[in-house]
Automatic annotation (TrEMBL):
Organism the protein comes from: Trichoplusia ni
Keyword terms: Heme, Iron, Metal-binding, Oxidoreductase, Peroxidase, Secreted, Signal
Chief location category: secreted
Protein name, per record: Peroxidase-like
MF GO annotations: heme binding; metal ion binding; peroxidase activity
Pfam families reported for this sequence: An_peroxidase
GO biological process terms held by the UniProt record: cellular process involved in reproduction in multicellular organism; response to oxidative stress
Upper classification of the organism: Eukaryota, Metazoa, Ecdysozoa, Arthropoda, Hexapoda
Residues reported to bind heme b: H490
GO cellular component, one term: extracellular region
Length: 737
């Protein structure tokens, strides 16, 4: 079912860089006979592959990978770059990776090339499959053993506060959940060669085109949720950014171009960077054909070595701390974290604006590198997460949380005038992190996924303390959660951003595609920020169904162009890039029966959708997780079908149970006191809005749902309806407490 028995010529076809270095490889393969290697494997002798062979593959893998990197840089220098391709360049606004992660990514590419060479060495002239090779590798536990990759060792000291980068949360595995960790897996990946090649259909042919799947199965129909509002969408994206960020491969000199600048075709092979996986657009595309666009830029995610540096299949890198710890506010690395602090009174940097009581996020140091502004006076912000400016509502939520940090720091400083800046910063960070966790687990998860399911996954809110922390649970982000299941919420994004002036009496709509990476709506007038907050809670979100706004499927990051990218096609392609196992594999993992025919999906997927799947996919085993999961009927009380619900619940279970600093863990040296925890448990989205806006005085208690007869607005002064978090429980009698 997969590509088996690679030979040298196949490899030359696959990678332009490898074909450039043909002589290097021929040399590698000459002196060895595979039969020897395989024989010795079967004999199970101590050294089935000689250490020289391994060293040879590692050395040559390194050479190949370095040559590829040099070639990538040269292409950019020679004008193959994204300068004239706005949608593509905006996808790279995430900037350059910090040097330690860049180094890890390079080592990972070297390990992947070495693994590939070793695979070829062991399967030339044989019928061995990728799986045979992988079990062989696992059996051997072959590791890179030199200075370029050292098994992770982190020494920790006992700390009341979380580290910035996620290290040392788990005392047994201090590396778990750290920034730069590999995503975790709950299923074997389906790379075509078992290692890194893009997946193919069972037949060996190409999987269906992601853009075709997007237009046929995720069409643009304005169906709105009757209950959920846009703040619900926005919180979802914010916690996504707290848990994960998968960066894309780039050259040392900038983003990677895979399509001709006008999108009219894929770049010729000789100009392609080997990390390119562009999305091809068919001639009859319902939208792009009017703009003669045939190619959407798309680049593979950065990978990282496994913690023990062993050879094997590709693991993508999570470049932020995977704990729910407010990292989008504070940053995931120490350098950025310091840049965001004032070092006075525990406060984060903020800027004031004329006629606004409350502060705004600080200005980014290079506006043009991260924003798409119409003129240089428009705002462009800096925060702990580089995606901050992606949409105005994302920047709005970041601003609310920045203000919350500074508000809390000020109150703590009034209560404890002798506390140092460091102590105030850490305590305020601890409180804001706890509020984020509380709002997520108490309000957001039950609203979206139903109380019942949370109960069965044992992640329901409890009255005070929980005692279920487990140090054997890895809180890392599950690859299929990030590269498939949670992305289903892209379907709830609305076409417009709504602004409501002070009495909620009017509403103004602004097209989302006019404001990607341009948060200027927040600062049109001194009232604009509050107008966006009101608009976001007043506006119905899209329904979580496989219908999607054209603003994200045709116009994502369009800038001043007439066309943009397709986020749903990207989601599908990203799942393949990460080798996410098939929908059918996940059905089994999640307790459904494995489908043998398309008709076997009937319990979960409606007949018209099964027909569409059958039309598009050759075989039921080929269905991508993102696609199959998205088409399932909702579980009662949830916005997700069974398979996504299972993956999402598993993630939020791990995020809670595997976090030593989870806010309501009891009887730990760093636990909140009962009085403090009772106060934290009063926090809510509504209170966050009340406390951090100048002029939002009324808000519905359930701030992730639109106003209705059973969810009316209350005054922010009504502390019975919208409880107030009283911080006097943090007042310490002496400086030594
Ligand atoms: C207007 C709102 C949003 C926009 C414009 C947006 C855009 C994007 C983009 C461009 C990516 C990277 C795609 C790639 O390269 O593979 C992405 C990734 C992702 N998005 Fe969204 N998104 C939005 C809202 C949401 C929401 C509401 C959720 C879920 C609640 C969500 C979940 C995710 C996840 C899980 C990823 C993968 C993150 C990673 O691993 O780095 N997004 N989104
Ligand atoms: Ca985090």
């Amino acid at each position: 079912c997969c590509l088996c028995g690679w030979d040298l010529e196949d490899l030359f076809d696959v990678s332009p860089i490898i074909s450039c270095t043909k002589s290097l490889l021929e040399d590698l393969f000459k002196p060895h006979t595979l039969a020897d290697l395989l024989d010795s494997y079967e004999d199970d002798t101590d050294v089935p592959i000689s250490s020289n062979d391994v060293a040879d593959c590692v050395r040559r893998g390194r050479e190949l990978s370095r040559a590829a990197r040099r070639r990538g840089n040269e292409l950019v220098t020679n004008g193959i770059n994204l300068e004239h391709y706005p949608p593509g360049i905006m996808h790279f606004f995430s900037g350059e990776l910090p040097s330690d992660m860049k180094k890890a990514a390079e080592t990972s590419n070297e390990i992947l090339a070495a693994t590939k060479l070793l695979q070829m060495k062991t399967s030339l002239d044989s019928n061995s499959t990728p799986n045979t090779f992988l079990s062989f590798l696992e059996h051997q536990g072959i590791r890179l053993q030199d200075s370029s990759c050292q098994p992770i060792r982190i020494s920790c000291c006992d700390n009341k506060y979380r580290s910035i980068d996620g290290t040392c949360n788990n005392e047994e595995h201090p590396e778990w959940g750290r920034r730069g960790a590999p995503f975790t897996r709950i299923a074997t990946p389906r790379y075509a060669d078992g290692i890194y090649a893009m997946p193919v259909a069972r037949s060996g042919r190409q999987l269906p085109n992601p853009r075709v799947l997007s237009t046929r199965l995720f069409s643009d129909q304005p169906i709105l949720s009757r209950v959920l509002n846009n703040m619900n969408m926005q919180w979802g994206q914010f916690i996504t950014h707290d848990l994960m960020f998968q960066a894309m491969e780039a050259t040392d000199k900038g983003g990677i171009q895979c399509c001709l600048s006008d999108g009219k075709d894929v770049l010729p092979q000789e100009w392609q960077n080997e990390k390119c996986i562009p999305i091809c657009v068919p001639d009859d595309d319902p939208f792009y054909r009017y703009h003669s666009v045939k190619c959407l830029n798309f680049v593979r995610s950065v990978t990282t070595p496994k913690d023990d540096c062993s050879l094997g299949y590709a693991e993508q890198m999570n470049t932020v701390s995977s704990y729910m710890d407010g990292s989008p506010i504070y940053g995931s690395d120490k350098k950025l974290a310091s840049k965001l602090r004032t070092f006075i009174g525990g406060r984060l940097k903020q800027e004031s604006r004329k006629n606004c009581l409350r502060g705004f996020l600080p200005t980014a140091s290079d506006k043009t590198a991260t924003c798409d502004l119409r003129n240089s006076s428009e705002p462009c912000y800096l925060a702990g997460d580089i995606r901050i400016n992606q949409t105005p509502t994302l920047a709005m939520l970041h601003t609310l949380l920045l203000r919350e940090h500074n508000r809390v720091a000020d109150v703590l400083s009034d209560l404890n005038p002798l506390w140092s800046d460091e102590r105030l910063y850490q305590e305020a960070r601890r409180i804001v992190g706890a509020e984020i966790q509380h709002i997520t687990y108490q309000e957001w998860l039950p609203t979206n996924f139903g109380e019942q399911y949370l109960r069965s996954y044992r992640i329901s809110p409890t009255s005070l303390y929980t005692h279920d922390y487990r140090d054997d649970v890895n809180p890392g982000v599950i690859n299929s959660f990030g590269a498939a299941a949670f992305r289903f919420l892209h379907t709830v994004i609305s076409d417009n951003i709504m602004m409501c002036p002070s009495n909620y009496g009017a509403a103004y709509l602004y097209r989302l595609s006019d404001y990607y990476f341009n948060p200027s709506l927040l600062e049109l007038t001194p009232d604009s920020f509050d107008d966006v907050v009101r608009g976001t809670v007043a506006q119905n979100a899209g329904e979580s169904d496989p219908f999607c706004s054209g603003e994200i499927t045709n116009l994502l990051f369009k800038s001043r162009n007439k066309w943009g990218m397709d986020l749903i096609a990207m989601d599908i392609q990203r799942g393949r890039d990460h080798g996410i196992a098939s929908y059918n594999d996940y059905r089994e993992i999640c307790g459904l029966h494995r489908a043998r025919t398309f008709q076997d999906l009937a319990n979960e997927i409606s007949q018209d959708r099964i027909n569409a799947l059958q039309y598009l996919y050759e075989c039921v085993d080929d269905i991508d997780l993102f696609v199959g999961g998205a088409l399932e009927r909702d579980v009662p009380g949830s916005i997700l079908g069974h398979t996504f619900q299972c993956i999402v619940a598993e993630q939020f279970y791990r995020t809670r149970i595997g976090d030593r600093y989870f806010y309501d863990n009891g009887e730990m040296p760093h636990s909140f006191t009962p009085d403090q925890l009772r106060e934290i448990k009063k926090s809510s989205m509504a209170r966050l809005i009340c406390d951090n806006t100048d002029g939002v005085h009324y808000i519905q208690r359930k701030a992730f749902e639109v106003e209705s007869a059973y969810n009316p607005k209350y005054s922010c002064d009504d502390h019975n309806a919208i409880p107030y978090v009283d911080l006097t429980a943090w007042k310490k009698p002496t400086i030594f407490d």
